[in-house]
Amino acid sequence: MRAMVRGGTSVRGARRTLVGVSESSSEPVRPGRAVGVRDVAALAGVSRQTVSRVLNDHPDVAPETKARVVQAMHELGYRMNNAARALGTRRSRTLGVLASDALQYGPSRSIAAIEIAARAAGYWVSAAFADAGDDESVISAVEHLIAQGVEGIVVVAPHARTLRALDTLRVGVPVLTLHSAGRGPRGLSVDQGAGARLAVAALADTGHIRIAHLAGPADWLEAESRAEGYATELAHRGLEPALMLIGDWTARSGYEATGAVLAAGVTAVFAANDQMALGLLGGLHEAGVAVPEAISVVGFDDVPDAAFYWPQLTTVRQDFEELARRAVASLIGEADAAASGLAPVAPVLVPRRSVAPPPRRPESRPRRPAS
């Protein structure tokens, strides 16, 4: 039996005779069996080739025909098989994600955002993880993704050594790096230097002149860019760096920096991420130092918990969703990718309650002349 939808017969009306028809159009669709292209074609009253054209966004399909096929897919609960689609189109519609450090907040948020942006564009994501300190691990991860036929790779590469390992490879598909502070010809990032300048400006505009920086690890490109932004904004205002400390992104390292911060006599600290700011807030509280009355603190990232620190943390927000959208658009060649290009995503300052004017110094009183 070959069923056709004629004249004004709707898909729903045709379903009464066609639902339950298998791919061979001779046996019922058994419960639990995956619905195939032939089932969709039979219900929509079109050929299998037409269904394939709809699945592959072919331009030569009439709008009403496409609508009928989409409705049939919806009614049958059809799920597209990516492997089968790849065989028919020689395209995997899959993007690779190579991550050399997925434990920190920024990289982990970016990986999740890439998957969401790719799925919205009709693409799948395949991830591979590598040890940033091992060139062979990075190379092996890239080769693993290439073997899966990915059409492009997003490298979440916060370390300079990961970029150096990539430079030794001939990948053969477009490659774009995130969290590399915009380094290299295909680097896309939130503008780290601009974000650091926003943080320092928030403190300086309130009257602080002795501002310390609790930086991230020296081998992280974004930590380097945030430290450069800190120094640049101070120089712009004619100020000198009051104190530079190196942390490791953890709250513990922020807590352990408390003693040096207090010994330096600074009135404000720009922490390179919110976790270190959290540790510093805890250390200052334990030392009996009030924030922001005695020392102001600004963080970076705007983690979801930052609004619930005590006090609520002033910080710099990174738009990881926009970063991922631009990355995916650039790799799959969408028209609007040309408009945004690889321009850095602008950060945003989020003012809260951890910043206040510096404490006033006691005014010196003139001595009374000796009688």
UniProtKB/TrEMBL annotation:
Gene3D superfamilies the record matches: 3.40.50.2300, lambda repressor-like DNA-binding domains
Biased composition (Basic and acidic residues): 360-371
Domain called HTH lacI-type: residue spans: 35-89
InterPro entries, per database record: HTH_LacI, LacI/GalR-like_sensor, Lambda_DNA-bd_dom_sf, Peripla_BP_I
Pfam families according to UniProt: LacI, Peripla_BP_3
SUPFAM superfamilies membership: lambda repressor-like DNA-binding domains, Periplasmic binding protein-like I
Protein name (Swiss-Prot/TrEMBL): DNA-binding LacI/PurR family transcriptional regulator
Organism name: Microbacterium murale
